[in-house]
């Protein structure tokens, strides 16, 4: 999928704002790339690459970390098949967006100490489409989305 990518840190600007990168602070450092990220392929039979890379999203309407606030948990697991987290092959970054506006990022190392997963806690009353882009150091960026706050 075509997208605007920061030349410094590889952040993808879903909202089209390219003046200042919200992740690394670079100014006017974006370029359009034809293959900025891959969309999920919802065919009945996915290949192993898709099964290891498409972000799986779980929305928990009542936050377990900050109860009583209406907080919404959005958990991301990379792939149906667990993705490797080795120095040679790993997920480096998971980006969270709400209605295409960047809201959070998690950077990970490939040292084998963590799984390719993350969670964000959206404030009570948050509504819209949460988009996730994860970046694999070998196979590029992969996208998925879910609605929250009906």
Beta percentage is 35-45%
**Helical content class:** under 10%
Topology as a string of helices (H) and strands (E): EEHEEEEEEE
Bulk shape: globular
Structural class: mainly beta
What is the number of strand segments? 9
User: What is the arithmetic mean of pLDDT?
Assistant: 91
Strand order in the sheet with the most strands? 6-5-8-9
Q: Please state the oligomeric state of the protein chains shown.
A: single chain
Distance between the termini: 27 Å
Radius of gyration: 15 Å
Number of helices: 1
Low-confidence stretches: none
In this structure, how is the largest beta sheet organized? 4 strands, antiparallel
Descriptive account of the structure:
- The radius of gyration is 15 Å and the shape is globular.
- It has one helix at 48-53, and strands spanning 3-6, 30-33, 55-60, 72-78, 91-98, 101-107, 117-122, 128-136, 140-148.
- The protein has 1 helix and 9 strands, in the order ββαβββββββ.
- 4% of the residues lie in helices and 40% in strands.
- The mean pLDDT is 91.
- It has 150 residues and is mainly beta.
- The strands form 3 sheets. A 4-stranded antiparallel β-sheet has the order 6-5-8-9, with no helix packed on it. Strands 3-4-7 form a 3-stranded antiparallel β-sheet, with no helix packed on it.
Per-chain topology:
Elements: E1 3-6, E2 30-33, H1 48-53, E3 55-60, E4 72-78, E5 91-98, E6 101-107, E7 117-122, E8 128-136, E9 140-148
Antiparallel strand pairs: 1-2, 3-4, 4-7, 5-6, 5-8, 8-9
Which labels suit this protein?
9 strands; single chain; mainly beta; three-stranded antiparallel beta sheet; 150 residues; 40% strand; four-stranded antiparallel beta sheet
